[in-house]
Write a structure and sequence with these properties.
The protein has a single domain, classed as Leucine Aminopeptidase, subunit E, domain 1 (3-Layer(aba) Sandwich), CATH 3.40.220.10. By secondary structure, it is an alpha/beta fold. It has a six-stranded mixed beta sheet with strand order 1-6-5-2-4-3, with helices on both faces. It is built from five helices and six strands. The structure holds adenosine-5-diphosphoribose (APR). Adenosine-5-diphosphoribose binds next to strand 2 and helix 1.
């Protein structure tokens, strides 16, 4: 399996990559969870730039600078709120990853680090989200030769284990 796909436990704001992905809300004006951590670490200039974007619909993504973060860009995407799984949530989550990778390709970025989108405040079951995320990441790695590394940064050991199991189930040995 592609060793360009890395799973790790940690704080996304401490990971160096061309782009860090933010699990934002549609206002793009910050919040809790990883959104709050990214804005705290990036500093006030990030919010100032986000204000100029006038929001982002669910499933889409927007790119900004990264300011004090160890990255060149932040790619903000708005995941679906889980409402039981019968309102197109899975398709919307897949769209988030595809929207992010469209911007990665357009900006010829070589490395990107994701959190587990929608699996916190938005309540998307991580056992359902992990296979969707990994499927979209593997498709992007197959289609973007300039991509050298895609990292999924899980906040807890339990979340990392879910992703490791999902990767194994998809027929690939767990990565580092
Ligand atoms: N690094 C990596 N992962 C993190 C971090 C961090 N510093 N902080 C939280 N997480 C993890 C959570 O444990 C969860 O697994 O990110 C995942 C996504 O959780 P949330 O940040 O709550 O994002 P989401 O579920 O997509 O909800 C988005 O929450 O913070 C608000 O403004 C945000 O309204 C939006 C909503």
């Amino acid at each position: 399996m592609d060793d360009r796909l890395v799973l790790m436990q940690g704080d996304l704001t401490k990971v160096a990559a061309d782009a860090l992905v933010n699990a934002a809300n549609s206002s793009l004006l910050g919040g809790g969870g990883v959104d709050g951590a990214i804005h705290r670490a990036a500093g006030p200039e990030l919010l100032a730039e986000c204000r100029t974007l006038h929001g982002c619909p669910t499933g889409e993504a927007r790119i900004t600078g990264a300011y004090r973060l160890p990255a060149r860009h932040v790619i903000h995407t708005v995941g679906p709120v889980w409402r039981g799984g019968h309102q197109g949530e899975r398709g919307q989550l897949a769209r988030c990853y595809r929207s992010v990778f469209e911007l990665v390709e357009r900006h010829a970025l070589r490395s990107v680090a994701f959190p587990s989108i929608s699996t916190g405040v938005y309540g998307f079951p991580i056992s359902e989200a992990a296979p969707i995320a990994l499927r979209e990441i593997r498709a992007a790695l197959a289609h973007q030769p300039q991509l050298e590394r895609v990292t999924v940064v899980l906040f807890s050991a339990a979340d990392l284990e879910v992703y490791r199991q999902a990767l194994a189930a998809a027929g690939a040995p767990p990565s580092a």
